[in-house]
Structures are given as C-alpha cells and as structure tokens.
Amino acid sequence: MNRRNRVALLALVPALAALGWSVGDGAYEGWWVREPHLAVGPGADGWASIDGTQARLDRVERVGTRETLSGETWEPPAGYDVWRLVVDVRSDLEDPRYCDVRVLDDVGRIFTPPDRVPEIPGAYVSTSLSCGFVGPDEEPADETYVVLPAGSDPAQVQLFSTSAGDDALGPHFFALPVP
After folding, report:
1. pLDDT tens, residue by residue, 46-66
2. pTM value?
C-alpha cells in the first residue's frame, strides 16, 4: 500500500465514524421519544395514569372449554392456555387512542395477542385495546385474549403506543401487575 492510500484510509476512518455518530444520534433520539421504556404502574387505588388516561387491570382469567354455536366443545390448542384480559380505562381525551398489548409471564417471557387466537366461541380477539377516549355509548372496559404455554401464568400486562401522533404515550407505558 502506498503512502497516499494509507493517508486516505486514515482520513476515511474518522470521517465514517463521525457520519455513523450523527446518523445514530437521530435514531436514538427517535427511539427515546417514541418507544416504550418507562413503565408506569398503578397507584394505591389500582389505577396507572399517563397523560390524562388511567388504566387498571379488571380481570385476567384462564379460558377453558366452551361450547360453539354448533354445540361442539372448543378447547385451547394442546400445550397452551388461553387467557382473557380485561382492562378498564378512564380518560379525559376527546379523540380515540389505541394501545398495543403484551403480556409478561411468570418467567419473564413476552407474549402478544396474535391476530388470530384459534377461534374462540363468543370472543373477539384484538392486538390492541382502547386506551384513550371512551365515548358515551362505549364500555370503559376492553378485552383481548393471549395464548401462553401451558403451566405459564401471566405476571404483568403492558399497554403501549408507538404511534408518532399526538395520541402517542411517548416513552411511557402502562405496566399492570396481575394479582
């Protein structure tokens, strides 16, 4: 390698490092502002509060066998338990806000409601819940279902929003322990 190439290479390394730093800094700032990493748990009254919205875990219950409309017996897939999550919400927002759901089990694994939990008779499964404005004709409770490995118990339900709009929770998320 000749001297000219060595000098160019030595100049190129700090230039690339500076470029990486400037691009990475913007990505970090975007993550810090939008991605959920600041947990907000419930107070003594059982409600967690973020930006004019309060949430609490109303019920968490294992779903067993159910009867389908055709009279057949439905049961969760082998090796799995299905859990019903019911969250109460109070808010002074005037526009809807939706939060994604994730569940931590008793050993720290993370699960999310799938787009399709196996067909559960009489159940609507959603990957997100209302966590903002509750209209006059709406119930303040919302529910979804999550599938966990058999024998695993949910330990915490987390509600978070990563949208970039005014309805975002920012870096905060609801961390609701399962009693």
Report:
1. 999 998 889 999 999 998 887
2. 0.76
